[in-house]
Amino acid sequence: MTPTQPATALSLPCSILLLAGGRGARMGGRDKGLLPWQGRPLIAHVHQVVRPFSDDLIISCNRNAEQYQAYADRLVEDSQQGFPGPLAGVLAGLAAARHPWLLVLACDAPKIDSALIQALLAARANPPAPLMVQQAGQWQPMFSLLPTTLLASLHQAWDAGERSLLRVLERHGLTPLPCAVDDPRLSNFNTPERLSETDLAPLAPVGNKRCADAPPGE
User: Fold this and answer.
1) What CA–CA distance (Å, rounded) separates 75 from 90?
2) What residues contact 189, with CB distance under 8 A and at least 6 apart?
3) Quick one: which of 20, 38, 103, 120 has the fewest CB in 10 Å?
4) Using alpha carbons only, what angle is made at residue 170 by residues 164 and 176, rounded to the nearest 5 degrees?
5) Mean of pLDDT over the chain
6) Model pLDDT for residues 177-190, shown as the tens digit of each residue
7) Do residues 61 and 21 touch, judged by C-beta distance below 8 A?
8) Gap between the Cα atoms of 125 and 141, Å rounded
9) Under a CB-based contact definition with an 8 Å cutoff, are residues 82 and 163 in contact?
10) With bands split at pLDDT 50, 70 and 90, how would you rate the model's confidence at 2?
11) How far is CA 101 from CA 11, 82, 120, 127, in A?
12) CA atoms within 13 A on the CB side of 69
């Protein structure tokens, strides 16, 4: 599929990984990405925003593959059973990615917008180093941009017993993309209460709550 973003966003192509492979413990074991919000599955909202940015859209899922297939170019699953965590999904995504960069996002953040993605892409450095959204000093691993050259190092850490995506990325010069602590675009709908409170509400206006370096006027 031919992406439709401006040429500047294509200058360093990226693959995109949507993480939907968790056990959904706080949702009673239900598959979060397929839960409805505003009449559509959560994954559909994220897909609508990110689709124009890549011709290599990957979803990490460990169940319901036939339902996720409609939202991805390719599906990957964890190499280890038992829902071992986001790092397993990222490893599978890095191994499958066709481009030098992999944008990592959660399936349960439907308020993400194109300005946030553009800010991450614009912050890419040379030599490549991982980027991650940060709010009031707190890292947000589910909003990250990774060079695919990290695959071997992350695999080494995994084989040594590491299971924290954040800890392993901090060893590689992790660069922050500061965002306001109340930025609505970073909201995770990961509990039944959170989902029900917002299911009928319109998307909150972003206003001035932007990440650093976000293009104006978005």
Assistant:
1) 12
2) 32, 35, 37, 42, 108, 109, 110, 195, 198
3) 38
4) 115
5) 82
6) 999 999 989 887 55
7) yes
8) 18
9) no
10) very low
11) 12, 28, 11, 12
12) 4
Give the other-Cβ count within 10 Å of 143's Cβ: 25
CA distance 170 to 23: 26
Q: Find residue 62's DSSP bridge partners.
A: none
Q: What are phi and psi of 139, to 5 degrees?
A: -70, 150
Class level of CATH domain 10-198: alpha beta
Enter the DSSP assignment of 34.
G
- Global pTM value: 0.81
**Distance from CA of residue 184 to its chain's centroid?**
15
Please check whether residue 119 is in contact with residue 108, taking contact to mean a CB–CB distance below 8 angstroms: no
For the chain, what are the domain ranges? 10-198
Per residue in 83-112, pLDDT (tens digit) is 578 899 999 999 999 999 999 999 989 999
Which amino acid is residue 94, in one-letter code?
Answer: L
Q: What is the pLDDT of residues 115-154, one digit of tens each?
A: 999 999 999 988 899 999 999 999 999 999 999 999 999 9
Q: Which amino acid is at 43?
A: I
Cα angle for residues 11, 15, 18 (degrees, 5° grid): 140
Query: How far is it, in rounded angstroms, from Cα 128 to Cα 6?
Result: 22
